[in-house]
Specification:
The structure holds 2 protein chains of 2 kinds. Chain A is built from 27 helices and 8 strands. By secondary structure, chain A is mainly α. Chain A has a two-stranded antiparallel ribbon with strand order 1-2. A two-stranded antiparallel sheet of chain A has the order 3-4. In chain A, strands 5-6 form a two-stranded antiparallel sheet. The chains are: A mainly alpha, B alpha+beta.
Chain lengths: 688, 392
């Protein structure tokens, strides 16, 4: 065996090796847990906006309370931490943004500003504008800005109305026919709408109407003169108000503004609430009030709008919990207005206690703290960093050939994989689901499985190739997951469509097919090493090395075929159970079938002698392209029964990927043709 | 001749043919997937996957491609001749042989489903009972009536008259009928509209062709039919038939009245079903369905039984399977009774894919174990050789 292909001999269970691994694990965990959750503000400068007189930044206790505060969104109970994270991602493609002074704030701080200090939130740079063309279309200025940059609401607000009009116009078009500028206009208009809705969500808490001598007589009968009516007062005294307005009869021309101008005596009553909640959509944005009934009887949590609507329509009194919660919110709003941080925190603590107690009683709070921990650990970002570090260490080992360096690299990659798998496991626990039920989760799983499989093959082959690929595939996979999450700006743990509500098929068909994807991509990665080595002539004379590479590629390809085939047939059986046909030529089904056919063609071509090792590698790379089509491409076609997997905006990336792959295969073909027609070239490798 | 046959068998059993077939199937599946953006799934299946060949214009040049029937047929022959008949029966091939047998079984199941299954849907409102189901895409002309004592009904599938377009006619003849029916002007997706000129169309109406829908089930066909009495008893009568007309065309021939209808192909189930209750449960606070469920009573002769049909849990009985497919009314302002739509399938090979999967999985397991034992033997031999070399 040549020295170059000698095994790295890294896996002997020696004490330093175990110490390195354990140290790496502890380091990653410690780093994740010790990471500060809020950015510091060394200057401590107060804001210049009047509505934000509370001391900045939000205290750690307030942020911690906000993180674990439960709301109902997308059909499930989630902490504000989750909701704030993906809402900000929708606007900014990041889970943090910068305020007017350039200070970094996290998603929860941003959400607190949005709800309680909307004027200040309008100065946060939280709107990603991917191209200044979008701003040009509505005449907004963008001097001193980059082509792709982040803006504040105040900067975009002058063009908001025009953006809304243009977005309504562009939405008439089929999504496939929209230009990137038109799609950008629609996204930006939607994001501005989200901001406006959320910044008005707690308007009711800031409602204050003093009872004066010229106040409507009905109100003066209910509320003593000199007091100030709050929204919670209106709800608490709604019976008396309704009776008062009904008894007063139709409004006299000289009646107060609140009394209404209609013929119905209750017009004034309704007008009163309209004034307190001027934007009903905004008041419906947050569903944070659990009903005082068992979750099975009444699963929906209520928003302030819904509480008010139900009270007005049914004439039933508002629940004591809702009333107390609204009083808490008003006290919080007062705390912000008066700059009283203690009052704010005290009221928030009371509200948090009320809502979580009720949520616990209904059995809906158990996983909220764990979900906050999941976000806090940020397993996938840390694993991504770990894979990158391991890759850099591996690259150094190519130069320095240090055994210790290699051992540290192994330790880092194993720790990263362990943390990566821990993250996936946490998601399974949180969701009560097998590891894969969404497109986002496929990327996490595919990356983890590819790393694990690479390391297993490396254990047997020990030539360093699979180890290097493990670091690359882990990093690339998690990078794709990260970008996809940022691009979508949605809850990554959504409720599932009714047809997907089956853990048996998710655990069998989906897992098998995804393992097939992962192994196919790993085989394609090995094929890249083979073809690039051939193109560059790197170690081409080392036949043993390239034979071992080909063996690995073949082995992984067979493994991929096994899981792709079983997974595809299991999918057919599921379809037969759900829709009454084994095979319906649906695009997603066809994508899986194409992978199987591609791999069968390669194996039969290899057995028949049609494909030599280089041909097998070229075919494996083509199969990798087919996996990309099946995984992402068919979702972009927006056709078929697998509508739950639709996505958009990925064509450019996919076309670039296929273009690079096609260029690689074409280059190999050209070189092979030239080489085989030139007898003087030296022999080597396993490409002939 | 013997040499020729041997050569044919050699080609049909070759791995190269398997390779070529897999590559062509891969191209075919890609084309069929891509074209679903422009053609309905039903049309794509017929044109690409269930055909012997097809032409596809590439930059205006029509290219000939082998269709799914041809390629799957070739693959089945190659599997039978090469993968099973000509394969050397050795233990090391046992797993591969079982895998190939499983795939042949799978392909046979698909063929049986393609040839013998009936697929359709049944819509029931709460409290309503039904026993027939209708095809999503296939249509038929039903001719019913005549002698009331016998209650005859003759149905003619659309494959018999859908070519009656562009001036062509199709004459439907039966000994059971006192007349022939001549079909013309068939339009696969059409709508009647008042004629612009007097004398045009029939009864003042013509058929407006609307172009094929991207969803084949949304197509509503129409045609003109002329009833031609066999023994010259009475005049010819012409009428317009349209898929969504509310009542069949009634025509009198001699003393008998016949009802002629263009309708979705209709099948009779071996049992009747009454929808007792439809339940649609949403994820809280959303419009996203967490569950669609139909609670039904199955009526089979004199016996009744209760069943719950929901996603991933169909009702199976006597070779017929009913799946939860749709629901309504979807407009919340519509206060009419809820209805449930079932996909209904009669498929003799319903469970064959499951059995094929077990066979294929078993074959893969056997093959894997054989390879593993071989690999371990090789490694042991290699280690022994190394040890020998070291001691030497």
């Amino acid at each position: 065996m040549s020295p170059a292909s000698a095994p790295l001999d890294l896996l002997r269970p020696r004490a330093p090796w175990l110490v390195a691994l354990a140290a790496a694990c502890v380091a990653v965990l410690f780093a994740a847990l010790a990471r500060p959750t809020v950015a510091e503000d060394p200057a401590g400068s107060g804001p210049s906006v009047p509505s934000s007189r509370l001391v900045r930044p939000w205290s750690d206790d307030v942020v911690a309370l906000a993180r674990t505060f439960p709301i109902q969104e997308g059909g499930r109970i989630m902490p504000i931490d989750t909701w704030a994270g993906y809402t900000l991602q929708q606007l900014s493609h990041r889970k943090g943004c910068k305020d007017a002074e350039g200070r970094a704030i996290n998603a929860v701080e941003w959400a607190l500003d949005m709800l309680f200090r909307p004027t200040l939130a309008a100065t946060h740079r939280c709107f990603l504008v991917p191209d200044t063309d979008i701003l040009d279309s509505v005449g907004l200025a963008h001097e001193s800005k980059k082509k792709r940059d982040r803006y504040t609401y105040l900067e975009l607000e002058p063009g908001a109305a025009k953006l809304g009009q243009l977005a309504a116009k562009y939405e008439q078009k089929e999504s496939k026919e929209r230009s990137s500028r038109e799609a950008g206009v629609i996204d930006l208009a939607r994001n501005l709408g989200t901001f406006e809705r959320l910044s008005r969500a707690l308007t009711f808490a800031r409602f204050r109407a003093p009872v004066l001598a010229d106040t409507d007589p009905v109100l003066r009968k209910v509320f003593p003169a000199g007091t100030t009516m709050r929204f919670s007062d209106l709800l608490a005294r709604n019976d008396a108000l309704r009776a008062g307005f009904a008894a007063a009869g139709p409004a006299a021309p000289e009646a107060g503004a609140l009394h209404g101008k209609g013929k119905d005596p209750l017009d004034g009553f309704f007008a009163l609430f309209s004034e307190a909640i001027p934007d009903t959509g905004a008041a419906d944005a947050l569903h944070f009030l659990p009903p005082l009934t068992p979750a099975g009887d009444h699963p929906e949590w209520a928003s302030v709008f819904e509480i008010t609507r139900d009270m007005l329509s049914s004439e039933k009194p508002v629940s004591p919990l809702a009333l107390a919660a609204l009083v808490d919110l008003e006290r919080m709003a007062d705390g912000v207005t008066q700059g009283d941080a203690l009052a704010f925190e005290g009221a928030f603590r009371a509200l948090h206690g009320r809502v979580t107690t009720e949520a616990k009683r209904r059995g809906e709070y158990a996983k909220v703290p764990l979900e906050v921990t999941y976000h806090r650990l940020d397993t996938f970002t840390w694993s991504l960093s770990g894979y990158l570090i391991a890759f850099i260490l591996t690259a150094f080992t190519w130069i320095f050939r240090s055994k210790w360096l290699k051992r540290v690299a192994w330790g880092v990659v194993l720790a990263s994989l362990a943390y990566h798998v821990f993250g996936i496991t946490l998601r399974c626990v949180l969701r009560d689901r097998p590891p894969i039920s969404t497109l986002y989760e496929t990327t996490l799983f595919i990356a983890a499985f590819a790393v694990a499989l690479s390391l297993v093959v490396e254990w047997f082959q020990r030539n360093g190739v699979m180890f290097a690929l493990a670091t690359v595939l882990g990093a690339v996979g998690l990078f794709v997951a990260n970008r996809y999450e940022a691009m979508k700006g949605e809850d990554t743990m959504p409720q599932l469509q009714a047809v997907l509500d089956t853990n048996f098929w998710l655990a069998t068909h989906v897992t098998c097919v995804t393992i097939g994807y992962s192994a196919s991509l790993l085989a394609a990665a090995v094929a890249h090493v083979h073809l690039i080595g051939y193109l560059l002539g790197w170690r081409w004379a080392d036949r043993d090395f390239w034979r071992s590479v080909s063996r690995m590629e073949y082995g992984v390809l067979c493994f991929a075929l096994l899981f792709s085939t079983v997974g595809t047939i299991l999918g057919g059986i599921w379809a037969n159970e759900s829709w009454g046909r084994f095979w319906g030529w649906d695009p997603k089904e066809n994508g899986a079938l194409m992978i199987v056919l591609g791999q069968l063609a390669i194996l039969h071509g290899r057995m028949s002698g049609v494909l030599k090792p280089l041909g097998v590698s070229a075919g494996t790379i083509v199969t990798g392209g087919i996996v990309a089509f099946s995984w992402w491409g068919v979702n972009l076609l927006n056709i078929g029964l697998h509508a739950y997997g639709f996505t958009s905006g990925m064509w450019g990336v996919l076309i670039a990927f296929w273009g690079v792959e096609a260029a690689l295969v074409a280059s190999v073909l050209v070189k092979h043709l030239v080489t085989t027609s030139t007898p003087s070239l030296p022999e080597g490798g396993v490409g002939a | 001749m013997r040499r020729f046959l041997r050569a044919v068998v050699k080609v049909l059993s070759s791995l190269r043919l398997a390779f070529a077939t897999f590559v062509l199937l891969l191209v075919l599946v890609f084309i069929g997937t891509w074209q679903q953006q422009y053609e309905s799934l039903f049309d794509v299946q017929g044109k690409y996957f269930s055909s012997w060949y097809f032409t596809l214009p590439i930059y205006g040049v029509p290219l000939l491609f082998p269709g799914g029937t041809l390629l799957l047929g070739l693959l089945a022959v190659n599997l039978l001749v090469g993968g099973i008949v000509r394969m050397r029966f050795r233990w090391k091939n046992a797993g591969v042989l079982v895998i190939h047998l499983g795939i042949v079984f799978l392909l046979t199941g698909s063929l049986v489903e393609y040839l013998l299954s009936d697929k359709g849907y049944m819509v029931l409102r709460e409290g309503q009972t039904g026993r027939t189901f209708q095809s999503h895409q296939e249509w038929e002309i039903s001719i019913a009536g005549g002698d009331p004592a016998h209650g005859r009904e003759l149905v003619i599938p659309d494959t018999r008259f859908s070519a009656a377009q562009g001036g062509r006619t199709r004459r439907l003849v039966s000994d059971a009928l006192p007349f022939d029916l001549v079909v013309e002007g068939y339009a696969r997706n059409s709508e009647p509209k008042p004629a612009d000129r007097a004398g045009e169309g029939e009864d003042g109406f013509v058929l407006e062709w609307k172009g094929d829908s991207i969803k084949a089930e949304a197509n509503v066909p129409g045609c003109f039919v002329t009833m031609v009495p066999k023994q010259g008893a009475g005049p010819k009568v012409r009428a317009l038939l349209w898929g969504e007309q509310r009542f069949p065309w009634a025509v009198r021939v001699g003393e008998e009245t016949w009802q002629i209808d263009l309708r979705r192909r209709t099948f009779l189930a071996p049992f009747a079903v009454r929808l007792e209750k439809f339940v649609r449960r949403l994820h809280p606070g959303t419009q996203m369905a967490a569950e669609f469920s139909s609670y039904v009573t199955k009526i089979d002769g004199g016996t009744t039984s209760q069943a719950h049909v929901t996603m991933n849990a169909p009702l199976r009985d006597q070779g017929v399977i009913m799946f939860q497919e749709g629901w309504g009314p979807q407009d919340p302002r519509d206060r009419s009774l809820p209805w449930s739509q079932f996909a209904v399938v009669r498929n003799p090979s319903d469970q064959w894919p499951k059995y094929a999967c077990i066979v294929i999985g078993l074959g893969m397991l056997i093959h894997f174990l054989i390879r593993l034992v071989k690999h371990l033997d090789t490694e042991a031999a290699r280690a022994a050789a190394k040890a020998k070399e070291a001691t030497a």
